[in-house]
Design brief:
11 strands, 15 helices, Creatine Kinase, Chain A, domain 2, 13% strand, globular, seven-stranded antiparallel sheet, YbdK, 363 residues, ligase, alpha+beta
Length: 363
Amino acid sequence: MDTTTVRSVGVEEELLLVDPATGHPRAVAGAVLRSPGDNDPLVAELQREQLETGTRPCLTMDELSDEVRRWRREASERARQADVEVAALATSPLPVDPSVSPMARYRRICEEYGLTAQEQLTCGCHVHVGVESDEEGVAVLDRVRPWLAPLIALSGNSPFWQGRDTGYTSYRSQVWSRWPSSGPVELFGSAKRYHAAVQAMVDSGTLLDRGMVYFDARLSANYPTVEIRVADVCLDADDTVLIAALIRALVETAAREWLQGEPPDPMSVPLLRLASWRAGRSGLDGQLLHPVGHTPVPAEQVLRTLVEHCAAALISAGDLALVQERVHAVLRRGNGAAAQHEALRGGGGLAGVVATAVARTAA
């Protein structure tokens, strides 16, 4: 692997703050986090029952793995000082009435969007991959669209909501879809058209600002990256690294296709939405829409097609063996949702599910 040519990759993970005895989320982010001026890699999120970690940009998956684990441990240690634990759960298994963070922007979001914002206690995994320009970034966004739904299935880690089994692998993706700007988008074709579309959304008055452009994949407003936002936060750090490796390879594959003049798949937004819904509903246990043929096939076949699609980029980055091994491992043991169901069957109720997640988060 030549690290002078490989793309940088970084990960943001949102984590729940939970009571160690009951498993219920607790609104103590302010006690866990330092003041905003401290340049803290742990930051507040919309609700006080959660926080977000962020890695530095990394060139190898070993580096990224160390970073993800480092900040999970740091979050765990600080949470314990506030008498809580952190859990990498994309939704709370136990009932919760979320409490919005005190920052003015978050207060305004809750006022503007009502119950959609007030109930929005979900934890995602956002992956940033470096791009050379906005033009390259938009070319990537256009070409990764059909390949994002399988990542929802792979990362699914939110089967419970308000104390109930939802029947979904990723119910977080359903809750997140309530935002007016969320989900898959049309082909843009150029950076100019992308920025014009974003500006029109802001000018409509429906969004407060560009930060509320919640596309499944977008140009970052703060970094020279594309940001892929579809994944649930993963229960295990190994799965976070797997998602990041696949996303970096998808970005590199899309950029190569653009340079070679290959047009993007014109898959319609309604069909993309169906693919995402299907992935969130059945995860790895049923069928998914094939990213190329757009017909239902077993999830294992879709994941193997995903790896094959970006194999050349995985080889260039030195990640092919890691990705093959970890995809096989997830298919064998299941994703985070499967682990939560297994914990529930083991006794202890939904509090036991949370306790299992706490133990695995910082492992």
